[in-house]
């Protein structure tokens, strides 16, 4: 038991729902917590409410006037994809942050109470570390995180030989990189990319709101070839970490190794800026992105997504690996881009 746990052990505890007046206190707690992540920040409450009109439940515990735990939750209800209370929708990490077991238990109890009251299929906590809840756990996802250097040549040498050759091909193709604040420019590339993968795209306003809410902690890197945008990635920044989160490219980028060059450029420039952790993000075990990230020399780390089942008899399977979505994915790939961009946001808001 650490000093924080000892300080608050057995003192009266309350659970409160976050309001705008306490955003700074919430974020201060998150930033000081060892397991805090970018996705625990209060800004996501604003994003979820403004971009999707979701009902959010951002819960925190107090003891002796100090915040001792937080749990951000968003409620998604969809006829097609189910009814779930999630920590946190559209984020890869989440779950309970608490300085002691009392606070963690109080937050867990309140979350299950809300889930029961809403009559959801399940409550989902996207934990990076395992808990002792005894709830069912999904082992579908892993994350990839690695320390990078301030020396570009050292980072390049750390990439395995075959992948390093792909990066060099992108460099030799004359590709250029540019940080920008134009999310609509990014959206034009990203929307085509996800359509080609058979996935509904998020609304363009979502990306604008992300940048408005998180400011300098959210930016876009565009890759161009002979003046044409061929790839782009929206990244988040947290402490000394960079998280390339939404990335995409047009078919032309494949032969030019545009994706390889894009992630290398982000790694190179972030390393030179003093960022020390490159968080390549979540992938499904065995997926193409899983192999791609391993090829960069990253080691997969299991994610521990746990579920409290309310109406559902089993862990929900809302992911492309579910066979019932095969026909949908194949059909979506064939849609004209204008149609996919018009219809996609209506569906994407329910994926979580």
Automatic annotation (TrEMBL):
GO biological process, one term: regulation of cell shape
Keywords recorded for this protein, A-Z: Acyltransferase, Cell shape, Cell wall biogenesis/degradation, Peptidoglycan synthesis, Transferase
Superkingdom of this protein's organism: Bacteria
PROSITE patterns assigned: FEMABX
Residue intervals of the BioF2-like acetyltransferase domain: 179-293
Keyword Acyltransferase belongs to the record: yes
InterPro entries found in the cross-reference section: Acyl_CoA_acyltransferase (IPR016181), BioF2-like_GNAT_dom (IPR038740), FEMABX (IPR003447), PEP-CTERM_FemAB-rel (IPR017469), PG_Glycine_Bridge_Synth (IPR050644)
Coiled coil residues, start to end: none
Entry GO MF terms: aminoacyltransferase activity
Family: Belongs to the FemABX family.
Protein name: FemAB family PEP-CTERM system-associated protein
Source species of the chain: Sedimenticola selenatireducens
């Amino acid at each position: 038991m650490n000093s924080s746990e000892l300080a608050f052990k057995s003192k009266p505890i309350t659970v409160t729902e976050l309001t705008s007046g306490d955003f700074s206190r919430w974020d201060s707690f998150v930033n000081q917590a060892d397991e805090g992540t970018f996705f625990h920040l209060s800004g996501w409450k604003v994003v979820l409410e403004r971009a999707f009109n979701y009902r959010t439940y951002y819960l925190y515990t107090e003891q002796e006037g100090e915040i001792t735990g937080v749990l951000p939750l968003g409620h998604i209800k969809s006829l097609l994809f189910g009814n779930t209370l999630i920590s946190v929708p559209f984020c890869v990490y989440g779950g309970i942050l608490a300085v002691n077991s009392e606070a963690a238990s109080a937050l867990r109890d309140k979350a299950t109470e809300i889930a029961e009251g809403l009559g959801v299929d399940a409550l989902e906590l996207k934990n990076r570390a395992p808990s002792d809840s005894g709830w069912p756990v999904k082992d579908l996802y892993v994350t990839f995180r690695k320390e990078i250097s301030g020396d570009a040549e050292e980072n390049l040498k750390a990439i395995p030989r075959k992948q390093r050759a792909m990066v060099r091909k992108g460099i030799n193709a004359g590709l250029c990189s540019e940080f920008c604040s134009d999310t609509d420019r990014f959206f034009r590339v990203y929307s085509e990319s996800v359509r080609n993968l058979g996935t509904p795209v998020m609304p363009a306003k979502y990306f604008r709101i992300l940048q408005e809410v998180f400011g300098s902690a959210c930016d876009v890197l565009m890759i161009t070839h002979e003046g044409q945008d061929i790839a782009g990635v929206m990244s988040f920044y947290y402490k000394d970490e960079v998280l390339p989160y939404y990335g995409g490219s047009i078919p032309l980028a494949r032969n030019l190794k545009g994706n390889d060059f894009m992630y290398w450029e982000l790694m190179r420039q972030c390393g030179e800026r003093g960022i020390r952790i490159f968080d390549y993000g979540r992938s499904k075990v065995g997926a193409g992105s899983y192999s791609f990230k391993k090829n960069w020399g990253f080691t997969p780390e299991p994610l521990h997504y746990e579920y409290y089942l309310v109406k559902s008899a089993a862990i929900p399977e809302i992911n492309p690996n579910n066979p019932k979505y095969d026909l949908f994915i194949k059909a979506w790939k064939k849609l004209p881009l204008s149609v996919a961009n018009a219809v996609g946001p209506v569906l994407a808001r329910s994926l979580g």
